[in-house]
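User: I'm new to structure prediction. If I give you an amino acid sequence, what do you actually give back? Let's try with this one:
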Amino acid sequence: MEAAMDLGYMVVDCGLFDSKVCFPSTGLTPDRRLNGFEIELFYEDQPGTAFIDNTPYKMKKGIVMCGKPGQLRHSRLPFKCCYIHFRTDSAELSRAFMSIPDCFQTADFAGLLSLFLHTAAADYADDLSGRLKERSLTDRIIAEVLRLMPAAGTAPAVVTGHFDEMKRAKKYIDKNYAHDLSLPVIARAASLSPVYFHRLFCKYYGLTPAEYVRNVRITAAKELLLSTDLCIAEISERCGFSSQAYFGCRFKDTVGEAPLSYRKNKLKRDKA
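Assistant: Good question. You get back a string of structure tokens that encode the predicted 3D arrangement of the chain. For your 272 residues, that looks like this:
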């Protein structure tokens, strides 16, 4: 008889995640470096894309994503998933999870989803019984993911081709958002024709280049609004907008309030 695997681990977080609740606007989440293991199950077909060490994966119903310590992750919104984040000192469990593909299609979607939903419900029960039930369920999820992995169905759709060029273009936008970023300029940075570059960028990131540029500029403007006393005209110029009026319109469309209102209300909420 085989010895049972040591499942010594600590659950850091678990539950259900809806990006539209946490991130009202669409776009890309910031890069984050994982310091533990993450299991995520996507329970609906989503337009979003997950990036693990800059490799993009489509978020489709039944996809299991297994993040490992040290990996770099970000996502294109929106998406919904069930998740468990955990850390372990068990060399055996670590080795097992490090050998799992970053993404695979589960062969038992209904069964795995049921375990995740019951775990999320147990997590809300703030008593010993709830914690014990949560632990039992997470044990089963970890065991199920390890069991299902060899019998996984087809691999998830991975966006391929010209990845280095797309990565270079994204970095160019992130660094030069204050300057002219017309389509020909960005395409030149990727060494591609404007028409072909536009099509590839949309395929990889689910946004047009212009939409991504706008999101980067709005994010930079939000940081300047909260960290400096600069006037709106100065912030508009520093963030690459063609005029203060255009900046105000785009900011309100994206954030839901005018720049000055955002500054005032956010600082007031932070002090409360």
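You can read the tokens as a compact description of the fold. Here is one thing that stands out. The two ends are 60 Å apart (CA to CA).
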